[in-house]
Amino acid sequence: MDGRDWKKFLLPYEQTVEELKVKFKTLRGELKSREEYSPIEFVTGRVKKVSSILEKSKRLNVPSEQLEKGIEDIAGIRIMCQFVEDIERLAELIRKREDMTLVYEKDYVTNKKPSGYRSYHMIVEYPVQTALGMKRVLAEVQIRTLAMNFWATIEHSLNYKYRESLPEEVIKRLSKAAEAAYLLDQEMSSIRDEIMEAQQLFDDNSNIISRVLNGIQELYFYYRVREAAQFQLRFNEHWETDDVRYLKELSAEIDEAIARAKKG
User: Fold this and answer.
1) I need a labelling partner for 134 at 20 to 30 A (CA). Which of 56, 198, 207, 260 fits?
2) How far is CA 191 from the centre of its chain?
């Protein structure tokens, strides 16, 4: 086994994963705060285990002194999307980023693997600031839909169980499941507009409720207790009706009351 200090070797990769997770989660939050559609559903990340690194280096004939360049997915980020169309949009956002450099891409969405695996892979070089200075670390960003991720997770578990030697019957069933996941994605894409409209209505309702309640709290801050209590009462009478129009009008009135309060 390689005699290097693996804990120190993996530190930059661990930092890279944590920083990239924060950046992609922040991107998701920023798009939503701008009331734009976010192609990111959720983000996960991991650093490859030492045993997996050694197994892959042996399989690919990568010398131990070339692990940093020869094994490109020691740091891994996985981003899940709702729709297949979101994958390309997110990939384009990553291509335009200036805080990482795109090395190359692999499109397994259009060109699935023989097993049925679909995902979009982007190898990026990320400059991480360590205690010893800046270090450029390779990381793999996988972009896939929820259906693709479900299938890939099951396949990974089965490969682990059977040590990469899946029985023929399991391979056939996995292939059928992969096709079913693909058809599910296609079906979701066909009603994408309806789904997004429903989600937007839900978000609008949630946002206006938050705005009204925050506005009422701000009136209390300015000691406009009577006004705040009246607005609270009106809100309580209507919020369960999902009358977004009324809540928007109420929010506008609260904004005017806050403006008056600020003027004293």
Assistant:
1) 56
2) 22
Q: In terms of DSSP bridges, do strands 120-130 and 133-145 run parallel, antiparallel, or are they unpaired? A: antiparallel
Pick the CATH number of 6-169 from 3.50.50.60, 3.30.460.10, 3.40.50.720, 3.40.366.10: 3.30.460.10
- Write out pLDDT tens, residues 210-238: 888 898 898 888 888 898 889 898 888 88
**Strand intervals (E) in the chain:** 42-47, 75-81, 101-107, 120-130, 133-145
- Spatial separation of the C-alpha atoms in residues 152 and 72, rounded to whole Å: 19
Provide the pairing of β-strand 120-130 with 101-107.
Answer: antiparallel
Distances (CA, A) of 46 to 14, 15, 76, 189, 227: 8, 11, 5, 29, 51
**What are the domain boundaries of the chain?**
6-169, 195-263
Enzyme catalytic residues:
140
Dihedrals phi, psi of 187, to nearest 5 degrees: -65, -40
Tell me how far apart the alpha carbons of residues 50 and 46 are, in angstroms, rounded to a whole number.
12
Q: What does the mean pLDDT of the chain come to?
A: 90
Q: What is the mean pLDDT of residues 24-50?
A: 91
DSSP annotation string for 193-213: HHHHHHHHHHHHHHHHHHHHH
pLDDT tens column, 139-193: 999 999 999 999 999 888 888 777 778 888 888 988 898 989 989 888 888 887 7
pLDDT of residue 2: 66
Dihedral pair phi/psi, residue 108, rounded to 5°: -95, 5
Model pTM score: 0.75
Output the CA–CA distances (angstroms, integers) from residue 264 to 106, 146, 211, 257, 260, in the order listed.
61, 52, 22, 11, 7
